Amino acid sequence: MARLISQNKLLLKKISKIESNSMVLERRVAALEHELFEHKDQDKKLEEVMRFLLLNFPNSFKNEDVQDHAEHLSRTPTADVTDSPHAEEPVVDVEEPAVIAEAAMLKQVDKIIEMMEETVEEDPSAGIAGRVRQRSKRKRKSVRSPFTTGKRKTRKKILKEPPAVVPLHEEKSASPPPQEEKTGLELVLVPEDTQITYVLAPKFLDFPGRHMISEYKCSFIDRCLEKFHDKNDAVYNSGNVVIYRSQIDELLTSEYLDNNHVDAAAIILSEKNSLAPGLYQPFLYVFSFHWIHHFYQDTQLAFDKDIRLWPVRPVVGLPVQANSVDCGVFVCKYMEAAIQPEAVVWADQQHWAANMPKYRAELAYAILCATIK
Fold first, then answer.
1. What are the angstrom distances between the C-alpha of 97 and each of 44, 102, 150, 251?
2. Nearest to 102 by CA among 47, 57, 59, 46
């Protein structure tokens, strides 16, 4: 795949180069056509001047080639008629003065000179402009002052780029071409006979809370574990919260809970409250990053407030965890107890530590039920 992409890039570069060369060639052809048109126009004007000179001053041109050319230019339909033996002799107006012919010739010559002066480009080295350009070549003095840096930047002359020449054959250099900077994801070529290895998860999991929940919940969890047999399978997906099969195994066994577990539990509680209004107190669950952002915005005024004035309500008899891995489950249970419509009697909740496997299994069951929805 990467080889095809590199070949495609190479072909695109060649196509763009050919297109640019074709544009340059088209401009060349247009310039040559314009120059040819100007030369033809100039040839016509010179031909008219020469015809006028040969007709009025034939004795001034003694060269045989010039006389032949004069006869060719002076040949008219009346002259062809005079070649016949029965033709009458042409009548020449002798009374026309030669001064008029000379004045007309001078006018034509002046026009030609003006036209040639317009076409000649002005020499850039002549006049004031040339002297100013020569001054710029002098070495500048380095002057230091509080308002200057001591060295001035000289302007570089912008040279006109010569037209690109299309090579007939591509020149192959011995040195390898420079490698382009790799951006984004890099494609890796994999042989066709390569076997993709999956990280398989156990189809059956003997979790500790199996005997604490109903048989229906156990069978449902077992069926879901058989369905999601890869550890990287996404079991639960809600917004930015994703629970994989490996995280379900962490939840069912005695392991630490991730932030996604707590977020999923809060989302499930909010969905329960929307389906059955009045089951819990109205609440708003905010992700942990919100409080980080909130703290970041209030850091400037955080130390201006006296925290001794904050009201503190101590709660006696809270259930505590018996190990170091059930902290995430305790957070979910505290969250569920805080939104109860009635006051919680914490003396009746001292069995939380002993029922942790049950709460883990129930939370896993709730997450797996959300996948069916």
1. 27, 9, 77, 124
2. 57
pLDDT, mean of residues 16-25: 87
Structure tokens at 240: 């930015």
Most distant pair of Cα atoms in the chain: their distance: 149
CA distances from 52 to 47, 313, 354 (A): 9, 121, 126
pLDDT in tens, 338-351: 888 788 888 888 99
For CATH 3.40.395.10, the residue range(s) in the chain are 208-372
The tokens describing 100, both together, are 């008029």
Enter the pTM of the model.
0.42
The model's pLDDT over 253-273, given as tens digits with 9 standing for 90+, comes to: 989 898 889 999 988 888 877
Is the predicted pLDDT of residue 237 greater than 60, yes or no? yes
Residue with tokens 């126009």: 41
φ, ψ (nearest 5 deg) of residue 75: -75, 125
Q: Are 270 and 262 in contact (CB under 8 A)?
A: no
- Read out DSSP for 82-127? HTSTTPPPPP--TTS-HHHHHHHHHHHHHHHHHHHHHHSPPPTTSH
DSSP states along 35-95? HHHHHHHHHHHHHHHHHHHHHH-GGG---HHHHHHHHHHH--HHHHHHTSTTPPPPP--TT
pLDDT at residue 364 tops 90 = yes
Cα separation values, 296 from 200, 290, 291, Å: 42, 10, 8
β-bridge partners, 236: 243
Query: Which conformational region is residue 342 in: left (phi greater than 0), alpha (psi within -120 to 50 degrees), or beta?
Result: beta
Q: What is the CATH number of domain 208-372?
A: 3.40.395.10
d(CA 302, CA 299): 5
pLDDT at 145: 53
**What would the DSSP string read from start to end of 256-315?**
---HHHHHHHHHHHHHHHHHSTTSS-------HHHHHHHHHHTHHHHTTS-GGGS-----
User: What percentage of the chain carries pLDDT values higher than 70?
Assistant: 57
List of residues 6+ apart from 104 with CB closer than 8 A:
52
pLDDT of residue 326: 92
- Single-letter amino acid, residue 349: Q
